[in-house]
Structure formats: structure tokens, C-alpha cells
Design a protein that fits this description.
Helix content: over 70%
Strand content: under 5%
Shape: globular
Order of helices and strands: EHHHHHHEHHHHHHHHHHHHH
Structural class: mainly alpha
Number of strands: 2
Largest sheet: 2 strands, parallel
Distance between the termini: 35 Å
């Protein structure tokens, strides 16, 4: 081993997720203060997410082809573009349309970094360095919560622009932390020729089973988004209110942090394939318990399952992709699994809203059970199977 980069990776994750608490969680509050309607805000944020979802595989393909230290510079470049877009919305008196476009671009660049952040961990571990992903992602979750608390208070007291300045400052620190990552050995000319063989189109044929398994991840993300973002509609028939939602989300966040921090210990006992399958089983169980919950107290107890649902699914994605995908295609593998999760969340948000508008909350809960079941079955069928290397047949 060449040494540990865990501390630097923790600082990088801390800065990224602390900034995410501002530019993502408080996006609605910022844009509302700037005069946007709720429906337009929804369209803007969905547009940013969907754009980044489509762009992530293209960006990853470029990173796989160039190899070496390009990941570090891509993260720095995307961070710089995000800073410029977000700061411009607070610094200049722009027409509303221009402000909306700039904010969407900022979200686009910011969200596109996510798979690259994961790929950095894999790249350095493969290069002989040591990075504890669970520690990095765990400190990121803690930074997100603390940042949300501080930004929310400052926005309430001094205005929405404070969110932009704090988030931009955190992103500047992110650039500093990423610059400190060491350079790795560049690929030889022979290795670079090999990477040219796998375009995005070839990726789907080379890793067919892997791509099918991503549908399982997408369905689980759909249920997760539906149950989390529409939790107020789930607890209201049980006598709950927004305060109940706050308590439920706090419970989930509280149990999530230690679960992710000690994830590496869990991986020593359970394989990545089984962690994915177990996450599906527990998501399905959670969906059934939501459907049958008799009161708000039961909802609180169900939220403890975050340690075996999201805490199994989210970090396992990184290692599962690394195990199934050749090193030369590693960044694309990370990008596609992140994009599938993002797409699942977007679909879950849309479907949940439609079910609630046209039917009753029971329809949402039943749909959640069906969606979680489909995702679980797909994972059980696909994750243990290995794609045939089409380059050797």
C-alpha cells in the first residue's frame, strides 16, 4: 500500500455534501425568494437532474478513455463551473429566465460530479492507496446535516443569498482538497488503445447483465424517493403532521450515519452481491410495513430500517460496479449506476405525485410494494451472474 488518503477523501466528501445541503435542499427556498412559482421550480430542478443523468455516462466515457489523473481535473472543472453559475444568480440582477437557466446549469454541473467522487475512491484503491469509503461518505452525511442546520438559520435571518455564498465557499474548499490528491501512473499507449474499444454503445452490449441489474437499483430508488418525499402524505392519515415527518427523517438520518461509517466492517462479513440483494429484501419489507402501519409510532420504528435499506444500497453500488466492470471502463460503470439511482428518484417523485393527485395514499403505498418487489427480483436474478467478455469470444 502506498499510504492512506482517507482523511483527504473525508474532507472532499465533507465539502461536497455540505454544499449539497445548500444548493439542493434549499433550492426551492432560494428560487421562491427570487420570484419563481412552485411549479416552475419543480421543472427547473428536474431539468437539472435529468440533464446531469444523461451527461454522466458521456463524461465518464471521456474519463475512461483518457485515464490517469483526468478524474481529479474533471471534478475541479465541474466544481469551478458550478461556483460561477451559482454565484452569478446572487451577484447580478438578472432577468428571471437567465437566473433560472444559470441555476439549472449549476445543479447540472454539481450533480454530474457525484459518480466521479465515487470513481476517485475506486481509482486510488486500485492504484495501491487506501481510502475508507464508509468513513468518507459518513462524514459527508454528518456535514450535510450540520450545513443544512446552519444554512437554514442564516437564510431565515438574513435572506436566501446567504445559501449561495456559503455553498460557493464550501465548493472552493472542495477544489483545494481535490488538488491535494496525488497523481497516479498514467496509462501506457497500449492500455489507451484498449480503452478506445468501449464506447457507451459497446458498454451496453459488453455488460448486459450489469445493465439489467441497474434496473433493480432504479426500482429501489423509486420506492425510496416516493416513501421519503411524500412521507407527509403517509403520516397524515395516521394522525401525524409535519412535525412527525421531521422526527421520522431525523431518526432515519441518525441511524444512517453510523451505518455508512462502519460499512467497511459489514463488507468483511457479507459479499457485495448479497448486500445488494438484502437491501432489496429490506426495502420490500419496509414497503409492506408502511402499507400496514397502524400509527405514527410504527412509522418511527420503520425508519430504523434505514441501516439495512439505504445504508446497504448506497455504498454497495460503488463496490458492485468496481467488481463487475473492467478497470478500463470503471468510470462509466460508476456513472451508469449513479444515473440509474438518480433516474429512479426522478421517476418515483413523478409517479408518487400522480398517484396522490388522482388516487389515495393507499395507491402510493401499494405501488411502493410492487416497485420494491420488482427491484428485489431483478437483483436476485442478475447480481450473481457474470457478463461474458465479448472481446475474447
Amino acid at each position: 500500500m502506498k499510504g492512506s488518503l482517507t482523511l483527504r477523501y473525508m474532507l472532499h466528501q465533507m465539502a461536497y455534501w455540505a454544499a449539497a445541503a445548500g444548493v439542493m435542499s434549499f433550492a426551492s427556498a432560494f428560487l421562491l425568494e427570487k420570484g419563481f412559482s412552485a411549479s416552475v421550480i419543480g421543472i427547473l430542478l428536474a431539468s437539472g437532474n435529468l440533464l446531469s443523468c444523461g451527461f454522466q455516462p458521456i463524461l465518464a466515457d471521456r474519463a475512461d478513455r483518457l485515464g490517469g489523473n483526468i478524474l481529479k481535473w474533471l471534478i475541479i472543472g465541474l466544481t469551478g463551473f458550478s461556483i460561477c453559475c451559482f454565484v452569478a444568480t446572487a451577484l447580478f440582477a438578472l432577468p428571471q429566465t437567465a437566473m433560472g437557466i444559470l441555476y439549472v446549469l449549476g445543479v447540472f454541473f454539481f450533480d454530474a460530479m457525484n459518480p466521479l467522487n465515487n470513481a476517485v475512491c475506486v481509482m486510488y484503491n486500485n492504484a495501491g492507496y487506501r481510502i475508507n469509503y464508509g468513513m468518507g461518505r459518513g462524514i459527508g452525511a454528518f456535514a450535510f446535516s450540520l450545513s443544512a442546520l446552519i444554512i437554514g438559520k442564516l437564510m431565515a435571518d438574513y435572506g436566501a443569498d446567504w445559501m449561495i455564498w456559503i455553498s460557493a465557499s464550501l465548493l472552493v474548499f472542495n477544489i483545494i482538497f481535490v488538488l491535494g490528491f496525488p497523481n497516479v501512473k498514467e496509462r501506457t499507449q497500449e492500455e489507451n488503445v484498449q480503452t478506445e474499444c468501449c464506447s457507451i454503445a459497446v458498454f451496453f452490449s459488453r455488460y448486459r447483465l450489469y445493465c439489467v441489474s441497474l434496473l433493480g437499483v432504479m426500482f429501489l430508488a423509486m420506492f425510496h424517493a416516493m416513501s421519503e418525499n411524500y412521507l407527509i402524505e403517509i403520516v397524515r392519515p395516521l394522525g401525524g403532521d409535519s412535525g412527525s415527518v421531521g422526527i421520522a427523517l431525523f431518526i432515519a438520518t441518525a441511524v444512517e450515519r453510523p451505518g455508512i461509517v462502519f460499512f467497511d466492517k459489514v463488507r468483511e462479513k457479507i459479499t457485495d452481491n448479497w448486500l445488494l440483494k438484502l437491501s432489496g429484501v429490506f426495502f420490500l419489507l419496509k414497503a409492506l410495513l408502511f402499507l400496514l402501519a397502524p400509527n405514527v409510532t410504527a412509522i418511527y420504528m420503520i425508519q430504523v430500517m434505514q441501516t439495512v435499506t439505504y445504508c446497504f444500497l448506497a455504498p454497495t453500488q460503488l463496490f458492485y460496479a468496481n467488481n463487475k466492470i473492467d478497470p478500463v471502463d470503471m468510470v462509466k460503470g460508476q456513472a451508469f449506476i449513479t444515473a440509474s439511482y438518480t433516474l429512479g428518484c426522478a421517476c418515483g417523485n413523478f409517479l408518487g405525485g400522480q398517484l396522490l393527485e388522482w388516487f389515495h395514499v393507499t395507491a402510493l403505498l401499494v405501488a411502493g410494494v410492487v416497485i420494491a418487489a420488482i427491484g428485489t427480483v431483478i437483483l436476485f436474478v442478475t447480481v450473481d451472474k457474470k457478463d461474458i467478455d465479448t472481446r475474447r469470444v
